[in-house]
Each structure stands twice: as C-alpha cells, then as structure tokens.
Amino acid sequence: MDTFDNFQYDTASTYGGMSVIDDNSSVYTENIQDNASSVDLSSLSLSDSALQTGDNPAQHARVTLDEDFDAVLDDLKDEGVVDLPPHACSYCGIHSPASVVKCLICSKWFCNSRGNTSASHIVNHLVRAKHKEVILHADSPLGETTPECYNCGSKNVFMLGFIPAKSDTVVVLLCRQPCAAISKDISWNASLWAPLIDDRSFLSWLVKPPSEQEQLRSRQISFAQINRLEDMWRENANATLEDLEKPGVDDEPQAILPRYEDAYQYQNIFGPLVKIEADYDKKLKESQTQTDITIRWDIGLNQKRVAWFCLPKLESGEVRLAVGDELRLRYSGELHKPWEGVGHVIKIPNNVSDEIGLELRKTEGVPTDITHGFVADFVWKSTSFDRMQLAMKTFAVDEKSVSGYIYHKLLGHELEPQILRTQMPKRFSAPGLPELNHSQMFAVKSVLQKPLSLIQGPPGTGKTVTSASIVYHLAKMNPGQVLVCAPSNVAVDQLTEKIHATGLKVVRLTAKSREALDSSVAFLTLHQQVANSTAHVELQKLIQLKNEQGELSSNDERKYKTLIRQCEKEILGAADVICCTCVGAGDPRLNKLRFRTVLIDEATQAAEPECMIPLVMGCKQVVLVGDHQQLGPVIMNKKAARAGLTQSLFERLVVLNNRPIRLQVQYRMHPCLSEFPSNMFYEGTLQNGVTAPERLRKNVDFPWPVPDTPMFFYQNLGQEEISSSGTSFLNRTEASNVEKIATKFFKSGVVPAQIGVITPYEGQRSYIVNYMQFNGTLKKDLYKEIEVASVDAFQGREKDYIILSCVRSNEHQGIGFLNDPRRLNVALTRAKYGVVILGNPKVLSKHPLWHYLLTHYKEKGTLVEGPLNNLQASMIQFSKPRRSLVKSMEQFRRHETNARDYLAPAPSAMIVDPMAARRSGTPSRFDASFYRTHDALGYIPSDVQSLRSQATYSSGLPMFGAPGPYGPGVARGVNGSKRTSYSYASSIVSQDAGHGGADTNSVINGGSSISMAYSQSDRIRRRGSFGSASVAGTSELGSISQYDYKSQDESVDLDDMKSQYTGTQSGVTVF
C-alpha cells in the first residue's frame, strides 16, 4: 500500500488547526521542495507520551527482510508438523513480528496483509468485531506499543492519526476529534494530521505489510469465510476455520416464494425468517449495555423524573434508538443503595444535543442526588415480532381473517379480476383537501372498484392527499370502519391529520409508551379523547384524583381501569376511521373489532409479515400505497435479508403482475430537479405540477453556476476516512465544503430550517454537525437549525434546499450502498428549490448509475469545480463504466429478475406477450433483461440510443420527453430519422392512468402499435378499466433472492418501525 514517506497534507484550509482539503486542492503534495516542512517517516519513533508502555522503541531489535523470509521458510518447511506461533494471524497464519498486531479486546493476532480482501486482516477484524484497540508485537520496530492519543489517551485506532513533530524522528499521535482539531501546540503542525489507517490498512511505518513470499505461503481466506468466522467467534471465541466446514454451521433459511400453495406454507417460510430477525434483534439489544453513564436529572411537565445522558455506542449505527423505546438505568455504587428504573425515550440525539431523554415510569426511590456511575441497558420487547407471528398463524387457521379473494391474491394464486359494485361519487376530491388531478382521480376511482389495489406514489405526487381522499370515500360508501396503517408513527400522524380534515371521525391509536409524547394529532389520540370525554363523570373524577395524588387505592384503581376500557370501547366503536401503525393494529384494544377495509400507507417500507397484522382483521378490500423505487424495509439480520425478508408485500404483488396505479404529477421539485429521477426511475412519466418560475426564489441570491438551473455537482477530491465507530465513513473535505455552502445559503437569504444536509453515513453526519459548530463563520445557533440526517431519515419528507454529501472517495474500496438506485432516488427528490451534490466524480463515475447522473449534470453545465465564489465547469474526464446500467441495477432487483417465469396467463381479454415479436421473426429493440423484469418496476434500457431525448445522443442518458414517454408523432432514431418499427416500452410499462386499448399483441411487435401511443393527457381522459397482462406460458415456482439494501455502516432512523421487545415468542406456534 502507499506510505506517507514523501507526502504532506495541503494546508489550504483548517479545522481548528487540522488540515481540511478544499475541492481544488490535492490530498497530498509529492516531492516537497522545502526540506524544513518535508516529512521523512522512514525512521520515525512515536513520542514517548504516545506509548502506553513507555519503552524506547530503539532498544528493540529490527528484523531485516532476509530474516523475515528465513523465518517464514523455516516455519513452513513442514506445515503438517510445525505449529504456528501464538502471534500468528488468526486468519492467514502470517507471523512476522513487524507485520502483526494484537487486538486488545479479544487477544487475537492479525496481520496487515489484505490477502483476498479489500482491507487488511487486522482492519477486517476490527470492523467486523467492532473492536478498536491494538498493541504492536514486542519484536516489532516500535516495540510492544499501544497506539493512543498524546493528549487524551484515547486508544480508538479509527480516531487516531499522526502529526510529525519538529524533530524529524518523532511523530505525535492525536485523535481526530477533539484533540487534533483544537491542538495549538507550537512543537508540531496540526495541519499535517493524517489517519493511521489509510485505504483500510495500517500505515506501513507503523505495521509493515507482509512480503510477497509470506503472503504466497500463507493460508488463503476469502471475505465470506472471514465474515462467517467472525460470526462464529461471537458464540465461541476458540472457533477455527476448520469449524466452518462442519455440517449445519452455515445453513441458510428457506427463501421466500412469489406464490404459496396455502397459508401454512406461507407461515412455514415467513415464520422462521421473523424468528431469525427477532433473535438477532434481541441479541443485539442485550449486548449494548453501557457503563459509567453520567446522568443529568430533571422533572417533566407531568411531574415524572427525566434522566438526560449520552450513549456513545449509538454512532456505530447498528443499534437504532427511537422515541418510545425502553431503556433501563441501574446504579450499584457506594453512594446509594442499589437501584434500577425503566423508562421510555422521549428525546433522541439531534443537531442541537447528543443527549437522550428518558422518562422514568416510577418516581419513588430515584437517586437524583447521584449523577455518575450509572449503567444503561436496552430493554428488548417481543411485541412487534409476536404480533407478526400471530398474524401469520391467524391467516392460516382463521377462515374469517380475510375474504376468499384476498386470501388467494395474497398467496399469489391466479384469479378472475373482480369488480366491486359500487355507486361512484360525483366528486372524487374530498372536502377539506386540495382538488385532485387526473391521475389522482383515476387512482381513487380504480380503488373503489377493486378488492385489491396498489398505488405507486413517486416523490411529491400527493400520495398522502390521495390516500386520505380514498379513505373518505371508502368510509362514506361502505358499512363498517376503515383501518388505516403505516409502518412508522410519522406517516400515520400525517395521514391522520389529512383524514381528519375531511370531517370524518378519526381515532389515532398509539402505543402506551408513546402516550406522553406530543404530536400534531394528539387531540385525536384515543387516550386524549378518553381524558376529554364528558360522558363518564366518575372516570373524570378518578383521572383528576390520580393526577393530583400520583396513584389510586386498589379499589379505585380497579374501577379506573374498568371505566377506561369501557370508554375506549365506546370511542373506538363510534369512529369512522382508526389510524395506527402496522404493529399497533395488533393492540389488544382492537381484538374484537373487524375491519372490512384496510389501507396501508408507505407499504413498501414494511416487511411483508408486518403488513399482515392489519390485514388479518377481517379485510375484504385492501389498498396498498407506496413506491417500490424508494427505500424498502429495514432488516438487520443478513440471513433473513438474503432469504427475501427485505421484499415488501407491495413488491411481491407487483412481481405477480398486480400493476400499480402510478400518480404522475409531482408538485415538489423544480422541473430541472425532477428530470433525472423521472427519466431514470419512472420511465419519464412524471409530469411537473409546478413551473420553473414557481420554484425560483426571487429573494435568494445564491450563485448557481447556471442561473435558471438551481442545481450543481461540486467536485471534491478529498479522501474518505473510517469514522470512530469503525463501521462508517467520513470525508473532511466534503464536511468543510458543506459548511461553506450552508453559510453561502444563509448569506443569500435562506432560513436555516429550510436547508437539509443528507449523507448516507452516520460518521459523516456526526462529523458535519461538529464541524459546523466549531468552524461555522456565523452564529452557532444558525448551524444547529440545519437538519443533518441520513437518506432513510429524509424519506417521505422535503426541504427547500438539499446538500448531499456522498463521502466515498477511494482507489479500491468502491462506493458501498451509494450504488443503490433507490437510495439515490430518495436523496435527489427531497428538495423543492435547489440541490447541491458534493462528491468525487472520478470515483463515482466508475459506477453506471452515477455515470449517468454525472453525464446529465455535465451536459447541463452544472458539474463544477473551484472555490465557491468562482465556480468553473469541471474539465474532468471520466471513462464509461465497465458494467452496463442494466446489469448494475439487476443486483438491486434480484427478486424481480425472471419474474415473468412465475407468471401464468391471466384469464383476461388483454394478454400482452412480449416474446411474440421474437417468435414472429421481428427483431426486438429491447434486450432480454427488459422482458425478464416486470413492466411496472421500471425500464432502464441498455440501448440508451433508442430513446428520444436529443440530450441522450451525446450523453447516453435514458431520457424521455418532458411530458412523458408519449409525444406527438412518431419517435425518432439516433440519426433523426423516423422510427416506426418499435413503440416505446412505456406503452406497457405500468398501469399509470389511462386505457390500453388497441391490438395488445402488437405493443412490442411494432407496425400497428402506433395506435397505442396516446399522449399523457389522452390516456388520462380515456380512463377505463385495464385488463390484466401476463406472459403466455407457465413455469415452476422458484425461490426469489433479495438484495440486502441496508449496509451495516449506515445510519437509519427507523422511527418505531423496529419496535423493541423482550421475552420469547409468547407461545406463538411457528409451523
């Protein structure tokens, strides 16, 4: 690997004295001419203060290269007889003292060789095991040394870096934050700080890479074997590679299927996956105990005790903390008798503070006079997983859980399309809500006529308003109550607010752990309606008495609970609509209620078993609303994810040819911001409900490179670094420029609350927050108001301006889940007025998806470099990626590939056979990957030259015309000539909002297919029922594999999607 022997950091800008590389700076400067500032690291020693042992490294014997070779050859003369020394690498067996280090947490040794992986073995282990402290070998050049911070003593190697002292033979180790950032010591230059781990290996002057001869003679181990071995070490610290070969060690659960014979087979496949996820979640939570917690005590508005404290482990991103989660505090010190108390989280870390607020259930005996020495435990609760298991069991054994039609559709069986006999309303728009556009009205009309409907709502298309309008008409037209659910509390609250605006009686059911939390719909919650009820005078007296005294007598408590249950039953029974989370639908208070109609919003963000909870309560009509082109469910266990638990019910139904109705008019983004997402993810069908002048802020004077195009990609060449958690990344160059851009927005007249900073990595999120606080040129309070969050946290939300920090910038490591098209789609579609992307185009352009985005920005003149006050068009040249976009996208669509193989011909008048063209001898314009992917899931052509946009011809961008895939006249080919042989794929892509009449067999064949090419407005006006389309021919069912979209180093705001739980399966049977 590269060393730092002849490099130093550019001092273009600093972060508290620490170097920050500007966009137009190089990371390192080679061949330094100034001998005074050059650094020779060939014979460095660590400053004595940085050595834990205090030994003088010069006293240790150095092992020459020849001696290394001799030692290796001697040890390996007879591998079957000679045992490796105790300090041999636990992965590959390399044992040169200069090349190995010992993990101080598990006492295992690892070398600095990469082997067959992209990271060195020691870094691989530290990241996988989440260990952070090491010690060098006693016979290494630097001796038996534990690297630690010169100032604070921190031993976290992911935080440590070095600064050469003015003495050329000594380096000083300092942690990235806070010591290097605030260092003012005149004896060293803090701007030269560089991390000890570069490109996922220790620097060669600290831990020598093994020689080629050593690596050739070492044990060859793959990344997959490393992962499996690390997993085994969690259970058995003495496990070896040989143990991996034992039968049953790495058994994979059965993967999900597109179709199921019956509900018992359905439960037999999903039940074990839910249990695997539950067991993993339980183990993860219970392993996160944190000691030596410092508490700040306070009293809440309800007179309950609130503990405020910080949990350092949250930065790893593996444990998700949401409002309403339960934590246990314990104290067993000498200053107070042993105490423990359980409470629920009322506040989680944000830009203003990293503190957690925990409201305790009981106030008596709380040691408020003690502030140090507490222990915090995560309380694991089984509620959400138990309810999933119970829902699947109910689906199997209770014939009344769903209607016969819904039962068979959920299992994927072929059925005759069913039309409900309903009296259509005269107006589809609901009172109190905005008027619906044509595609929204078509969606409402279609839903009212079908027992099962899917609605795809791309970003900004008014999905919530459409859902609320649907609920209004369903409640008015059908007997019984409507159950409205979503996986997260935020989504439920937003929909509850819209439904209430229509005048319907709405009850918002919340978990008891969230009843004390304030929200915009608090007055609609069940507990608030009970408290405000005037029908039960005796209950009101008891409530008042309990508030005054804190507790009731045993008799009064029994009477209180009886009256509460009675009042809750009356309020729930009188409601038109009940709103709750999907898991909340399993609340015992709803047990005896039956819901004929169920609507699930954000259905693509819920795991399929989660959606089953509200569905098995007697539903006969189901509406699923979501967008399978945005982020899906969060599954923590990799085995469950690989088996397909990350695929939502919405997606599986789409794969089975249940075509979603797509909302087509977006009202959020400036037209130039919606162009790329529309073309890349929605076949060019998104229309703009706002004009460019409506999305240009006249009072904001921001220097956009192209004045009428409020977007640009800002070239940043600074290198990524591993964050302090070891499982995430940060980029100091991009963080510095985020602050500069935010400051520029402030000075241009933008309010801080209108700015959002999105970054995929928790390490970068934390670093940006701290950087802006310490280095912002304006008042700190301004920067605190900027929301800095992950892509996941921003899904479903919007800001006026978005700054996207891509972070990844390296030579060999790739870009991780930045390559996930859904993640990019969400990140690009949050802004209303402007987007700024910061990244390294050289690295990103190697990946097809980003290559298209960068080409798009370059053609618009918005790929720029240089200082912010003088941005210039970037001259960077990036080569075409090796992989085609189709192949790249397929890794994120494994469950969709070959979807048509599972489809049987539907008994319908409209049969679309995409292979007819090939059988007839007519050549096809589209490759096999198009035919294998379900129409409604999006078409990304490999032959981008076949599309119509003139910009496409030079850039390769798969763009359609602005109004959609259908335009007047006939499509033109690359050379501008008329192309009449083939119609566009979008003519059968999805059931957008129009009628597909004409000769369906000629849709792809060409020739007569021109009769299908209605304009968007024509198709909307021709609103009619669609026939179902499927492929002629059947094939056997097979398992579907699913890509795990979630990476372990990302930060995800689950917001109650992952309810905590304790205990076991509570007697629920898994068949």
Features:
seven-stranded parallel beta sheet, Elongation Factor Tu (Ef-tu), domain 3, disordered N terminus, disordered C terminus, globular, seven-stranded antiparallel beta sheet, 1071 residues, 30 helices, Rossmann fold, alpha/beta, single chain
**What is the overall shape?**
globular
> Over the alpha carbons, how many angstroms does the gyration radius reach?
31 Å
Helix fraction bin: 25-40%
By DSSP (H or I, 4+ residues per run), the number of helices equals: 30
Number of strands: 36
Strand content: 5-15%
Side-by-side strand order of the widest sheet: 12-18-15-16-17-14-13
State the separation between the terminal residues, measured CA to CA: 53 Å
CATH class value of the domain at 403-665: Alpha Beta
Going by CATH, the homologous superfamily of the domain at 403-665 would be P-loop containing nucleotide triphosphate hydrolases
Model regions low in confidence, pLDDT < 50 over at least 5 residues: 1-45, 47-66, 75-81, 893-1071
Mean pLDDT: 76
CATH fold assignment of the domain at 403-665: Rossmann fold
Subcellular location: Cytoplasm
Region (C3H): 89-121
Function: RNA-dependent helicase required for nonsense-mediated decay (NMD) of aberrant mRNAs containing premature stop codons and modulates the expression level of normal mRNAs. Also capable of unwinding double-stranded DNA and translocating on single-stranded DNA.
Domain Upf1: 81-236
